[in-house]
Amino acid sequence: GDYVEFKEFFQMLTIMLSVFFMYRQIRNSNKQKEKEYDYKRKEKAVEMAVVFQKMLKEVSYIVGILEKTKIKEIYHDRIKFNELKEFDYEELVSKFGKNTIREINGADMLETVSINDAANLYIRYNYADENFLKLCDGQETEKISLFIMNDFFERKSRVLNKLEWFSMNFTSGLADESVVYQSLHQVYLSFVKLFHFEISIKNKEGPKDKYYCNIIDLYREWAEHYERALERETNAQREFEDKMNDNIRKTDKFSIKY
User: Tell me: the pLDDT tens digits for 203-215?
Assistant: First the structure.
């Protein structure tokens, strides 16, 4: 009887040890997979930073044009990044009203941009080919204007599609946004803020048919990060100034009078 009991105990112990070692192996394997997954996400983030850098020239050209339109006037510095949340027509109307929207919608957007400014921007970002330079030499204003307008709207659409793909890598979790946030967030937020009108004017049909969802989601997340950090910085500065003022008052109170 004792032998049977010992045998059963030994078998049970063997099974428990086997389960324990299997658990350790699985756990170590999962940790290794997590490390590999984290590494891949960081690697992808670095890859996306390089992609963003390559996009900068084209994005900067579009933004350079937008800054000379009424878009720049209405998206002034007083509008905080995190005030723009939905990127839809309803938000556009609530912020600026239908009259302002009518003024800057469509081709009329470029009315306030001088031909010289637009042509100089086009040349500055190395897009000028021989045909364009000939138009400039011939001072064919109408043809230059039409060329730039067509090029601007085509490039704007392409830039938004590239930004959507870039953003998707972070919103999907493929890339680790914490790796690039500090170096890219201000440029990204500034660019997307100026694209708010273009994105919002397309989004009239509700969430199910929304355009540029990944741009919107990443912008919203980074805008919240930015405003929270700004608030912490402001509070810290205020606390520092309060302490300095307290010290000055104490020094004044105990200063020796002759």
Answer: 988 777 899 999 9
